[in-house]
Amino acid sequence: MSLLITDECINCDVCEPECPNEAIYMGEEIYEIDKDKCTECVGHYDEPQCVEVCPVDCIPKDPNNEETEDQLMLKYERLMAE
After folding, report:
1. Does domain 16-81 have CATH number 3.30.70.20?
2. How far apart (Å, rounded) are the C-alpha atoms in residues 61 and 51?
3. Can you give the residue ranges of the 4Fe-4S ferredoxin-type domain (predicted)?
4. Taking the domains of the chain in order of start, what are their residue ranges?
């Protein structure tokens, strides 16, 4: 599943540059994650980098967008081919 940023986000700007897929962007009020680009860093790192650097722990898995490790790897491969 992709990740999502909750309304606890303090807009500290540390997550956006850490995303290897450029899935994080500034929304109307807080940062948001493009579910079509988020691979939870599968293919790049062992752990999601945004979660690792978030000082307020506001980036959980998105329960409305469940994906298996294999699906995340296929998404990674598609993104790298583009």
Report:
1. yes
2. 10
3. 1-29, 31-64
4. 16-81
